[in-house]
Write a structure and sequence with these properties.
The chain has 18 helices and 18 strands. The chain is an alpha/beta fold. It folds into two domains: 221 residues, Rossmann fold (3-Layer(aba) Sandwich); 163 residues, Rossmann fold, CATH 3.40.50. The structure holds uridine-diphosphate-N-acetylglucosamine.
């Protein structure tokens, strides 16, 4: 007997989450259970550049996607619509039992909508709609101007099974009326991947390449990532923030692997004077003339290693708030809110928004202060994806008929 699970990836932050699911499926199938999993991977092509997509497949040893929709960029509606059209065709051919979507990008929303609006006649002659599973459900920034918040709310409202990463997500879902039996608090699949690849990332030469390594130790440096429309799409907001980053770059090298959306803004708004291209101009790390050091987007292993040894990370990413929490690296978040409050209570995260003064104040406090050792959030232990697969298999077996033998085997191998 087998069940068919179809997992969807589209944009960069999806890849590290699905990598953990792929690994858990591989491990499950290797244990010779009578119920096997046929796993199909679909890439929507929302992110398509080599350094936004292909590099992650290599670094994370992801299997090549079985299907690639090649949707590319566009307005939110155009991109969502293209994914929906392509994904409907995929569902009608593949006819999976379960569709797994992760995170909060447009690919997540589009494939969730299609999953719950597509049906076919199954072997018993009944209309069948696949089960929709959302991994990283329930996170809320309570800011509906963020496209990701809209994607999260709609995806959660449609999902049959909701896997959560932190207690706040459980509370949000219950408050929104999601039945408790649909919600499973399993931990964080992105942290599964971080813990799995942490030692391999040590082989990266990125610090040497950036002249940030001196004999046997890393020199102090900071990292910046910035791509949220609220921060980069408005020239005035972007300039105010760049003034703060420029000040920081006089204290220590500030390396900035730049997202394509942000690079486009920098070029269009003619803000090149703030930057030096690290790989072309190769400034010495302590050169006082240096500006913010621009890099292309980095692969997973290089970025993980760079983040692990940084003095501080400045970011508006969601995932990086979680990764720095586990790495114990101070994180200054360039947003007024976070959908991941556990990173504030159990991690290193501090919210400063886009205000220049606050950014500098927090940077100064962090680099002068003692580094606090955070305690890892509950269940961020590297086993979230195994829990997810165990629960899905358990549910499938329950709905297929009475037999608990195999579930027992899996549970005894991977206790919570
Ligand atoms: C998307 C996600 C965001 C996630 C981010 C990570 C949504 C709504 N947003 O934002 O949650 O944090 O990915 O990167 O899904 N582009 C390229 N090459 C690429 C991809 C994008 O050049 O491979 C450029 C295109 O010009 C595009 C722009 O970047 O118009 C934005 O891409 P898009 O996928 O629409 O959103 P992101 O800003 O990347």
């Amino acid at each position: 007997m087998s069940i068919k699970i179809l997992s969807v990836v589209g944009a960069r932050p999806n890849f590290m989450k699905i990598a953990a699911i792929c690994e858990a499926v591989r491990e499950y199938n290797a244990t010779n259970n009578s119920l096997s999993i046929d796993h199909v991977l679909v890439h929507t092509g929302q992110h398509y550049d080599a350094n936004m997509s292909d590099m992650f497949f290599n670094d994370l040893e992801l299997p090549s996607p079985n299907l690639f929709l090649g949707v590319g960029s566009g307005s939110h509606s155009a991109q969502t619509a293209k994914i929906m059209e392509g994904f409907e065709r995929v569902l009608l051919v593949e006819k999976p039992d379960i569709v797994i979507v992760v995170g909060d990008v447009n690919s997540t929303l589009a494939s969730a909508l299609v999953t719950k609006k597509t049906s076919w006649t199954n072997q018993t002659g009944r209309d069948f709609i696949p089960k929709l599973v959302h991994v990283e459900a329930g996170l809320r920034s309570f800011d509906r101007t963020m496209p990701e918040e809209v994607n999260r709310i709609v995806t959660d409202a449609l999902s049959d099974v909701l896997f959560t990463t932190e207690e706040s997500a459980n509370e949000n879902l219950k408050r929104e009326g999601v039945q408790a039996e649909k919600i499973h608090f399993v931990g964080n699949v992105m942290i599964d991947t971080l813990l799995r690849y942490r030692s391999k990332a040590k082989e990266s030469t990125i610090l040497k390449d950036l002249q940030l390594f001196d004999k046997d130790h890393a020199k102090p440096y900071a990292i910046l990532t910035l791509h949220r429309p609220a921060n980069v799409d408005d020239r005035e907001t972007l300039i105010k923030m760049l003034d703060a980053f420029l000040q920081i770059s006089r204290d220590m090298p500030l390396v900035f692997p730049v997202h394509p959306r942000t690079l486009k803004q920098i070029q269009e708004a003619d803000l090149g004077d703030y930057f030096v291209d690290h790989f072309i101009d190769r400034p010495e790390p302590w050169d006082s003339r240096v500006r913010i050091r621009l890099l292309p987007p980095l692969g997973y292993l290089d970025f993980l290693e760079l983040m692990s040894l940084a003095q501080v990370v400045l970011t508006d990413s969601g995932g990086i708030q979680e990764e720095t929490t586990i790495l114990g690296v101070p994180c200054i978040t360039l947003r007024d809110n976070t959908e991941r409050p556990v990173t504030l209570t159990h991690g290193t995260n501090v919210l400063v928004g886009s205000d220049c003064k606050k950014i500098i104040e927090e940077f100064t406090r962090v680099v002068r202060g003692q580094r606090e050792i955070p305690s890892a959030p509950q269940l961020w232990d590297g086993h979230a994806a195994r829990r997810i697969i165990r629960i899905l298999v358990e549910e499938e077996r329950r709905s297929a008929g009475p037999s608990g033998a195999e579930v027992q085997t899996i549970e005894s191998q991977h206790p919570d």
